[in-house]
């Protein structure tokens, strides 16, 4: 069962979708440039196929204990990379160049603060690169069974999220014995910038097929990590990165 949020658009909902399937769709959502936020809906209404409403919130300093700081520049870059690939596909080289240039600027900005946002992963050591989160989700346990009592708890948690009270929302769920995990989508900072710079040169040379492949390499490098909310890693570690 899942609840999905992005920094600034937090809310949650129980669904019939398995966690792993949801994690696989995170990068697809990011690549489409469309992130979603799903609020809690009444369990019986959901079963009847009722529509969900959207809620938003602003993260607070308390979020550091149970969530990762999201790098907005990395998020923007992923959207621009997808937009550039779409422009290439549609035969719009000027638009593709515009989006690639914007992605390059955003990824260059990522470099300025990468050590503050970096998260150690198994890929960090292997690639000798630093991975930064550009999106995240909260996940209810797969064994979650909706009930009137739990729906009330979810409603309260949503109210906290709507006020930017992330920590309070997590505590509310825990008190009701509702298990929560956090998943994050990350990209390698150095490699992503290198691929985009390569795409810039290839577009200048009108080698659009090759430029598309360079951009695709960034999307393919997206890594999904999942954590218990009580063991979210500390950001800023550079032990496994290139530094």
Explained architecture:
This protein has 243 residues and is an alpha+beta fold. The chain has one domain: Four Helix Bundle (Hemerythrin (Met), subunit A), CATH 1.20.120.1940. 50% of the residues lie in helices and 11% in strands. It is elongated.
CATH topology assignment: Four Helix Bundle (Hemerythrin (Met), subunit A)
Global mean pLDDT: 74
Summarize the helix and strand pattern as letters: EHHHHHEHHEHHE
Distance between the termini: 37 Å
- Which consecutive residue ranges, at least 5 long each, have pLDDT under 50? 1-11, 13-65
Strands of the biggest beta sheet: in what spatial order?
1-2-3-4
- Tell me how many strands there are: 4
Strand fraction: 5-15%
CATH superfamily descriptor = YfdX protein domain
From the alpha carbons, calculate the radius of gyration and give it in angstroms. 19 Å
Global outline: elongated
Number of helices: 9
Q: How many discrete structural domains?
A: 1
Helix content: 40-55%
Structure class? alpha+beta
CATH architecture label name: Up-down Bundle
Sheet with the most strands, sense and barrel status: 4 strands, antiparallel
- The CATH class is identified as Mainly Alpha
Record keyword descriptors for this entry.
243 residues, alpha+beta, Four Helix Bundle (Hemerythrin (Met), subunit A), 4-stranded antiparallel beta sheet, 4 strands, 11% strand, disordered N terminus
Offer a concise description of the structure.
This protein has 243 residues and is of the alpha+beta class. The chain contains nine helices and four strands; from the N terminus they run βαααααβααβααβ. The protein has helices at 19-31, 43-47, 72-89, 93-117, 122-127, 148-162, 166-175, 189-204, 208-220, and strands spanning 2-3, 131-140, 180-188, 223-228.
């Amino acid at each position: 069962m899942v609840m999905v949020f992005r920094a600034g658009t937090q809310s949650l909902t129980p669904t019939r979708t398995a966690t792993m399937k949801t994690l696989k769709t995170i990068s697809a959502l990011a690549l489409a440039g469309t992130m979603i936020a799903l609020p809690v809906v009444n369990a019986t209404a959901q079963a009847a196929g009722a529509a969900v409403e959207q809620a938003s919130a602003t993260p607070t300093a308390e979020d550091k204990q149970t969530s990762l700081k999201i790098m907005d520049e990395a998020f923007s870059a992923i959207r621009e990379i997808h937009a550039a690939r779409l422009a290439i596909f549609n035969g719009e080289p000027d638009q593709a160049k515009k989006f690639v240039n914007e992605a390059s600027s955003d990824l260059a900005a990522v470099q300025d603060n990468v050590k503050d946002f970096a998260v150690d992963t198994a890929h960090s050591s292997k690639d000798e690169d630093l991975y930064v989160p550009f999106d995240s989700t909260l996940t209810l346990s797969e064994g979650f069974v909706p009930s009137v009592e739990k729906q009330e708890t979810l409603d309260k948690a949503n109210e906290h999220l709507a006020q930017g009270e992330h920590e309070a929302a997590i505590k509310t769920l825990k008190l009701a014995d509702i298990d929560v995990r956090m998943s994050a989508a990350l990209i390698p900072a150095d490699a992503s910038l290198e691929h985009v710079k390569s795409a810039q040169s290839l577009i200048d040379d009108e080698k659009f097929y090759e430029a598309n492949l360079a951009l695709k390499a960034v999307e393919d490098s997206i890594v999904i990590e999942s954590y218990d909310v009580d063991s979210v890693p500390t950001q800023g570690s550079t032990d496994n990165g290139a530094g």
